[in-house]
Amino acid sequence: GTAVESSSGFPMRAVVLAVVAARCAALRAGPTASTGESAPPAIAACESTLDALHAAAARADGDAYFECFAADAVFLGTAPEERWPRAEFERYARARFARGDGWTYALAGGRATAATPARHVTVGPGGGIAWFDEALVGEKLASCRGCGVLVREEGGAGAWRIAQYSLTMTVPNEAALDVAALTMRHQTKEL
Question: What is the number of alpha carbons within 13 Å of residue 87 lying toward its C-beta?
Fold first, then answer.
């Protein structure tokens, strides 16, 4: 078949395999969590991209917001049908931003300590790809988690861009069955 390339120039199959291999290597080597306290430069650069993303969304700045994404990025929203290729997501978000309607997500607890980091960033071997998860508090959705993959453009020497971002609402275990029942009732209405 034809190889599909990411905006960073890496074939997508190679990007996926690199993430899996790097994650396995990282698990063997132990955790590499960032805390905002003297993080290695690549981790600090990834965090800067994520911080810029959230700041731009809060002020409804479409240009700055989409500067954080790779050209072929995908955004996964909280609803089951929300898998947005960048072009579709950009049309939706820019329309909201044009009305001054952004969204606000902040790191849970701000920049937490090494013992309880709100964001974890791991940079893979070779330094061209990274993955992250972050505990967030949303203005409207409360407790959420963002996770995804960043790629370093220009063959690993350029800016870090988000290749995939997934936003999920977190649910306390004690409430999970209630939320599942509500979701099932909602899905039944759609059928």
Answer: 1
**Rounded to 5 degrees, what angle do the CA atoms 148, 153, 159 make?**
80
Say how many C-beta atoms besides its own lie within 10 A of residue 167's C-beta.
20
Judge whether 114 and 37 are in contact, CB under 8 Å.
yes
d(CA 130, CA 152): 8
Q: What is the mean pLDDT of residues 43-60?
A: 96
Query: Which helix (DSSP H) or strand (DSSP E) does residue 122 occupy?
Result: strand 119-123
Q: How confident is the model over 102-159, as pLDDT tens digits?
A: 999 999 986 555 556 799 999 999 899 999 999 999 999 999 999 999 999 986 678 9
Residue with tokens 């960073």: 8
The Cα 152–Cα 159 span in angstroms is 6
Please tell me the pTM assigned to this model: 0.75
H helices of 30-175, in order, are: 41-58, 62-67, 86-98, 153-156
Q: For residue 19, is pLDDT > 70?
A: no
Q: Radius of gyration of the chain from Cα atoms? A: 17
> For residues 24, 18, 40 and 146, what is the CA-based torsion angle, rounded to 10 degrees?
-80
Question: Tokens 């309607």 belong to which residue?
Answer: 101
If one counts every other C-beta atom within 10 angstroms of the C-beta of residue 111, the result is 14
- Nearest-angstrom CA–CA distance, 126 and 114: 25
